[in-house]
Specification:
single chain, alpha/beta, Rossmann fold, 2 domains, seven-stranded mixed β-sheet, four-stranded mixed β-sheet, 17 helices
């Protein structure tokens, strides 16, 4: 596209003018429009509008979801480091400290400008990767659909993104990245070992893994600690993958994989239970039942470890984009509220460890792997899916970095009727340099 002859009259200048008027301050971005024009602060992140359709996404769906649709479809591009661009733009908006103008006259003037630019038109098609859920929130059918949308991507996709153990949760970085070759694979191994130590796993014990994912913890606990694991997942692809991994590693007698809803887990009387970043999918109204189930499944003096994402007291957590493209019906709460729900179920919370910075490092590693394997990811899925995950990792990493989201390991025990916890071990036992026994 050849540059506009009169940059001041081009689409970019008019759009930057609208941003200044709306925000009552400087534009947080520099804009390059479809007509080749460019305007805005020279040191601001560059946003490229490849077509008028990018604006139509916003007109039909104002806010985060409209921006996400424009980015996922490729109508809007942010060259360079996407997370850095998002961070810089948000800092500019926050620094202004003004309330955006949204009077009827302002909206009418903006619509007139957009119409003059040819941006007003039919509603663009919704990207195919956007989930459309039906039924009551967290009903069994809706939960199956939501989990399937997120986790039933081919295992090969996750293999391109994650570490060799396929651990899709926050790692535990016991050393700085890169030190003596320390990488994501080692950080995930250290997380798995840390969980096993906190649970006090010993050969012959029974472990319930609720929301087992791709089986990283179930397989590790069976292989390294000799425990009998019941691994539960609602995602069919995951269940089949974990069963095959157990077969290949000759762990079939130790790892029982169940494809079912957590509300339908039979039996109980486990010595330990764990849930790694599955609680975010339970739902607020259903969480007391989830906590009660964990209590019911444990023997007296049995331990449970919940690793779960949280949100800041005044932060929303999740968001329209993540719920539409990545994790539908996700719910986060401040960690203190989760602790209260576990205590109300009869569990005694013994430790809470914040791992927020560890998630920033984990997401950084995933994002680098995604970019390194970009062509393979696109070939395996499609361009829109790859771009959705790029946006997800950029936004998620920024949320953890800015303390809008966190992740915590909560260790609890089911005491006996007389209050005996049976909890042994010290912080030194848990946190000394992790390595397989």
């Amino acid at each position: 596209m050849t540059p506009a002859r009169h940059p001041g009259r081009g689409a970019a200048a008019q759009l930057v003018g609208l941003l200044r008027q709306y925000l009552q301050g400087p534009s947080p971005v520099r804009v390059r429009a479809w007509d080749g024009s460019e305007a805005g602060p020279a040191d601001a992140p560059l946003v490229v509008l490849r077509s008028r359709r990018a604006l139509r996404h916003l007109l039909w769906q104002p806010g985060e979801l409209g921006l996400a649709r424009a980015y996922v479809t490729g109508d809007l591009e942010v060259p360079g480091d996407l997370r850095a661009g998002l961070s810089a733009a948000l800092r500019t908006v926050r620094a202004q400290g003004t309330v955006p103008r949204s009077s009827l006259s302002d909206k009418a003037a903006a619509l007139k400008t957009l119409a003059r630019l040819g941006a007003v038109g039919p509603k663009p098609p919704v990207p195919s990767g956007e989930v459309r859920l039906r039924g009551a929130p967290h009903s069994r059918g809706r939960d199956r659909h939501a989990i399937s949308h997120h986790y039933d991507l081919p295992p090969e996709f996750y293999a391109l993104l994650l570490d060799p153990a396929m651990a899709y949760s926050c790692g535990y970085w016991s050393r700085p990245p890169g030190e003596s070759g320390y990488s994501l694979a080692e950080a995930q191994r250290d997380k798995l070992e840390l969980v096993c130590r906190k649970l006090g796993l010993r050969p012959g014990m029974r472990l319930l893994d609720v929301g087992c994912g791709w089986g990283s913890l179930s397989l590790y606990a069976a292989e390294q600690h000799g425990v009998q694991v019941t691994a539960v997942t609602l995602a069919r692809e995951q269940a089949e993958y974990v069963r095959e991994q157990a077969r290949q590693r000759k762990l079939e007698e130790l790892v029982d994989v169940q494809h079912r809803d957590y509300r339908d887990i039979p039996g109980g009387w486990y010595e330990a239970a764990v849930s790694l970043e599955m609680g975010e999918h339970v739902g607020d109204a259903e969480y007391p039942g989830f906590a009660a189930m964990m209590h019911r499944m444990l023997r007296p003096q049995g331990r449970v470890l919940i690793q779960q994402m949280s949100r800041g007291a005044n932060a929303p957590g999740g968001g329209a984009f993540i719920e539409a493209y990545i994790a539908a019906d996700m719910h986060m709460r401040p960690v203190g509220e989760t602790v209260g729900l576990l205590e109300n179920a009869g569990l005694e919370v013994r430790s809470v460890d914040a791992m927020r910075e560890h998630y920033t490092l984990t997401i950084d590693a995933w994002a680098r792997t995604l970019e390194r394997n970009w062509d393979e990811v696109v070939a395996l899925t499609n361009e829109e899916t790859a771009r959705a995950w790029r946006l997800y990792l950029a936004g998620g990493g920024l949320a953890f970095e800015e303390r809008r989201m966190g992740v915590d390991q909560i260790l609890a025990v089911r005491p006996t009727e007389d209050g005996t916890s049976g909890l042994t071990g010290t912080l030194r036992d848990w946190y000394k340099e992790c390595a397989p026994r």
